[in-house]
Amino acid sequence: MEPTERTIINRRIAVLPDHLANKIAAGEVIQRPESAVKELLENSLDAGAQCITVIIKDGGTSLIQVVDDGGGMDEQDALASFLRHATSKIASYEELEEIRTYGFRGEALASIASVAQVTMKTRRPADDMAVVVRLDGGGAPRLSREGREPGTSVSVHNLFYNVPARRKFLKTTTTEFRHVYDAVHRIALGSPDVAIRFISDDEMIFDLKPATVEQRMIDLFGERQFASMIPVEETTELLAVRGFIGKPVFGQKTRSNQYLFLNGRFIVNRNINHAVFSAYENLLVKGTFPFFLLFIEVDPRRVDVNVHPSKMEAKFEDEQGIYRVVSTLVRKGLAAAGGGSVPGLAIGQRDWAEGGESLRFTPAQHVWPGPVDRATGEIFQPPAGGGDISASLLSPPSLEAAFPSAPMQGIDRAAEDQSALIWQLHNKYILSQIRNGVMIVDQHVAHERVLYERALRRFANELQTAQQLLFPYTLQLVPGDYALLTELLPHFALLGFDIKLFGKNTIVIEGVPPDVKGGQEERIVQDILGLYKEYQQHSPMDVRDNLAKSFSCRSAIKAGDPLNESEMRALIDQLFATSMPYVCPHGRPIVLRISIDELDRRFGRT
Ligand code: ADP
Ligand code: MG
Prior knowledge:
Layout: H1 18-29, H2 33-46, E1 51-57, E2 63-68, H3 75-80, H4 93-97, H5 108-114, E3 117-123, E4 130-136, E5 142-146, E6 151-157, H6 164-169, H7 173-190, E7 195-200, E8 203-208, H8 213-221, H9 223-227, E9 229-235, E10 239-246, E11 258-262, E12 265-266, H10 270-279, E13 292-298, E14 303-304, E15 315-316, H11 319-336, E16 345-346, H12 349-354, E17 360-361, H13 389-394, H14 397-402, E18 422-425, E19 429-434, E20 437-442, H15 443-461, E21 467-476, H16 479-495, E22 498-501, E23 506-512, H17 521-538, H18 543-555, H19 565-576, E24 591-595, H20 596-602
Parallel strand pairs: 1-7, 11-13
Antiparallel strand pairs: 1-2, 2-6, 3-4, 3-6, 4-5, 7-8, 9-10, 10-13, 11-12, 14-15, 16-17, 18-19, 19-20, 20-24, 21-23, 22-23
The structure holds adenosine-5'-diphosphate (ADP) and magnesium ion (MG).
């Protein structure tokens, strides 16, 4: 077989000519319209703008224009601003060590100008006229003057017109629009004191007034989603954090609703994400992610933002310290907010029509907050006659559907009212009348939650109490299980098992926790070990948690077990005494509620 032919380039090493080097580097700084928008917006913020307008056409591929009312530049600076590594923001290495501006590399304008046709109009308040600089892809800049209000406007036409390979990589204009939208949205969240207007293809996408963080969040996420957030705040000598975390039942289907601002700059940081996630452990419905928005302020000297071309990553001096602070902050926030709130029901027309499951559990799905109709990719028309465009465009429609009436108040504890009517449905669900509607509880997962927390408490208290069996059971385990049980024996003891190891894979069960139902004593240990092995594959470190989950799952009453009235009441009582009555340890919902309003609406009474 012939060896594969190789291409050998026989050429001398040379420094790339500037225009070529710029194009390559531009690929890193400017990857798509979104990056140009982000850079231009950050320049406007660095220039002290109070009001910024972003205009794009065709997802930013044919036009991006950012207009600000910031400090502006004189002629010399306007020209210099397009030179590579030309910046007004740092002058020395020491200053790089304590960056307080968004920009500092002096690359963005040079990069943009090398891959697009750019016009900059800029005027300092003290000057009479604006300087106009036109560049199109390499040639000498053309200068002129014109009348214009103070501030700067940068227009970027036909991005990548001279880099066909890059242009080919751009996605549909809808996709590029979404990316731009995300960037503007993030910056708008990070700088609530600045008015930001965003116009795409001549439509106002949002028009945000200067506001508090809270008001800006309402403007961008809508009242309802804002109401599902828990404010958090903490200051240590290392850092100050403040922001919002989502109530657990409002977990999002995607990770995109996670916002981290470090000294005002949006960043992505796995360490901090992990700190947040782990604090939510066992509180979230499976496959959902918590919403969070955290503003972290750290001494700039204790963090390096110059570790990534897009500056979206940061390296902290004390990663562990940050982790601890964030983790504690989130745990405290969740604890203070109590159990969260109860998922409502979405009884959609479609569900009835299809004759499928008509009652659907709807943990607040991730809601695309933007103006794009996901199904059609169409951009919503802004409502006629102006009005509060931002609010009406952005208030998440599916949350409305999912929580038709006062969803955030949680349930009145039905069990408190002993006269509340209560039924068991198909030996599986408990139905109860509550003050403003009806509540449905899945008996198995409810009991699972109760037993799970009981198990965790037993671990925490380190008390060994077993209910002795009159007739101990002698069992032979498979060798693997025997070895595992040997390892877990102390934990089993805390749970309330009295088990003796007899060697040769033989055990004697002499006592079990009181929660184990009669008749189950013989199987329960093997069942728990079986489940434990399963859970352990997913999270090998959480020995006790896995054991608590296995125990509660195996010992809980099952679907199909008939319950009498007092058993049902006791279960509901115990459920609402847990820290998280709404989600089982595996992330399944426990309680659903249909409000009277919802029923009235469905029956056409309102
Ligand atoms: P950097 O932001 O890293 O300094 P840029 O290439 O983005 O690099 O900008 C170069 C310089 O141009 C900035 O340092 C700033 O002095 C000036 N500049 C850019 N945009 C604006 C603006 N909108 N208003 C005033 N000055 C600006
Ligand atoms: Mg910049």
